[in-house]
Amino acid sequence: MAVEARDVRSEAGVWRRESRARHFRERAIKVVFTACAYVSVLTTFGIVFVLIFETVGFFRQVSIVEFLTSTQWSASFANGEFGVMVLVYGTLLTTLIAMLVALPVGLLAAIFLSEYASSRLRRWLKPALEVLAGVPTIVYGYFALTFVTPLLRDTIFPNIQIFNALSAGLVMGIMIIPTIASVSEDSLYAVPRSLREGAYALGATKREVATRVVVPAALSGIVASVVLGISRAVGETMIVAVAAGQLAQFGGPLESVQTMTAYIVQVASGDTARGTLTYQTIFAVGMTLFVITLLLNIISYWFVRRFRETYE
Amino acid sequence: MDYEKTGEERRVSEISRDHRDTRERFEEPPSGTQGTPASGMRVENLSAYYGSFKAITDVSLDIQANKVTAIIGPSGCGKSTFIRCLNRLHEVVPGARAEGSVMLGEQNIYGKNTDPVNIRRRIGMVFQKPNPFSKSVYENVAWGARINGYRGDMDELVERSLRQAALWDEVKDRLKESGLGLSGGQQQRLCIARTLAVEPEVILMDEPASALDPVSTQKIEDTMDELKQSYTVVIVTHNMQQAARISDYTGFFYIENMGDPGRLWEFDDTEKMFSNPDRKETEDYVTGRFG
Amino acid sequence: MTKGSTQATQKGAQGPDFKTSTSVRYGLDRVFAALVFVATLIGLVVLAVLLVDVAKDGVPLLSWSFITSFPSSIPTSAGIYPVLLGSLWLLALTALISVPLGIGAAVYLEEYATDTWLNRLVEVNISNLAGVPSIIYGLLGLGIFVNLLRPITGGPSLISGALTLSLLILPVIIIATREALRAIPDTVREGGFALGATRWEVIGSHLLPMALPGALTGTILALSRAIGETAPLIVVGAATYLTFAPDGPLSRYSALPIQIYYWVSQPQPEFQVGLAAAGIVVLMAVLILTNSFAVWLRNRYQRRI
User: Fold this and answer.
1) H/E run at residue B104
2) Which of A176, C13, C41, C149 has the fewest Cβ atoms within 10 angstroms?
């Protein structure tokens, strides 16, 4: 359809003049967005600042040597001992128990999802497992205290205490299964089919291919998932606060222990005035926790990077 | 705005005209331009980079106003990069930059004070794969005009643009439907319509029909003849017959070795380029000896 | 017997022994296959047991008065009204703060940021923050929002809690929105720029509307996680026993998970098992609702693409 030239443009004045307001608006919007991104930077600074500030105050009254080497933690008493290793022990014990559950179960589940399950099964099983990670931890704490501990007491360990590391650790392990399973499964799935086919062609069975070829090939991703799992366990609070108790001691699995996180919650739920030594202890313990999880995250990040480089 | 007259007399020093004027001049579209010919463009020593990789080097040519200029050449010779430098879309890619000058009428679009946003309104672009917005047909056409501050009758502008793109009859009862629901050929004409709605002076087309069926291609080629009466058109095409059919001038891009930057190998009247080109590589290409 | 096969036998492809070890291998295979299947189910079985246990103890106590009553030292008249309100308040405030911030940060990183070391640092920082334990965020909130900014926030108030939770879930929102933006092909951006649009005009008119459903899915999941958070709120001063309903952002408050924690910590089984379970049932119901909504949203969004 022919259009004549004179029909093509509008009269002058119908278009708005290019305004400086438009440019200003653009720049203002960019500033707003940039500020939003830098909130995250501020958050990190905030965390570091708060932790350092109070920890420094703490170490003015308690020697760092005592903090790191003393074998007693009795912060609430007048001449208390501040040996953080007791709390770290509590964290490590519960974490160890959790990993003893989560690692094999998570890895085996990952192998199932990656090597054995049909894609239809995988499509709903994987999200189903994720539900485990979505349950609030207070619910797990309740479960550990009111179900798992009595169960253990009535069956295997009649001498188990009401608050004990084992129940908390076991339930924490269940919670962490999806973390290990999900990340490991991604790594396993990413192993190229050609590797598997090569092994099958040599007469290997499915199990042998899975365990001797695919798992070693996906090892960095699996290790990364384990480190991630450990990090989650170390940072976990409610399960241990409810089920492992508040007794800071070098107890066994059947006894009560107190983790770093449980201690912080214990003090915070009481009425602790700002500026007191007790108040500062939660930051000192928090600092210890932060450093540990930071190291763990760095290690896991490094492993993920190694894993990505192998196949891309 | 009559480019053809001043072209011969231009000297390099005039290009570095006072840039404070440039901004003001760009802020108003050509006034009283009903039926007035559009501007031509002059490219001088244009080179473009993606980071440290040089994609095209030292390209110079004149794009005549109200004519269709075709850019042909084998794949990977920088044709797409070149055309994207003409509306400064090239630099949207992070790390990409261009050197040299590109004049639209009498202003250098790469001048220091020139606003690329404004340039892109005055030099429109239609892409290889139709990319209408996920909005209604009406909104697709109206959006560009709206953000550029059109204060006139939007309904009239939308209809006018769709007519120029030879799409009005097919969509006039479907203006509220999603633009993505149209066929490929219709979507491409919709993209042409939205480009026309902001009333550019130059229309760049990057292989506009290569993703379309022959019927749609024919429709788009038919519009070309009318478009050039009011706009300057630059079209990149792989289809040499198409270039021969619709263009007035043709530029041939070429690279000698892999990894070299693309160059403008030859540029002339279309008739001459396709019947009696000066350079051997041009002849080889247009006769289909390589592609 | 030909020479070739003798050699093969000698090489160690043991005749009868080979066959046995094959069946051993297959046997192990079957055991292993069962093992991995069981492992996958263990978590789900435990989850089912947990849900049944909670329902068994909690559902009988559910009633309208449970939802509308205040906590009390008498188990039969205790309810969750103020803490439910507190959780809803927290949810609303947290959403109001974290969603714009998160989307804004994601837009910056995807559409504006160039590949400089500074921007890469910002990205690394966000990934790192995603892995920081929630209780550390509580300490951050305590130090900054509750104490340092006490004049503005009113100390251990709803707004302090909401700010703390916002920072906690911010990395998740950012990551979800970035994914949604990345899924939009560049041709949309090019089409917009080619018409002489500014970057914000392209983002606001095209990219954000297209990215919103996907971003919202991740955001809703993040918010539902915030509903279940306990530790950071306790640290930030949420009351563990509340007898009044919160009435504004500066009010003291509590939240449902904290009430559950309080009840679980009581020695009497009526609280520890009964009421706590009832509270858990309500909490899980809320979570199932929000998560289902998020999944529905994602399915609806995927169909359009």
Assistant:
1) strand B96-104
2) C13
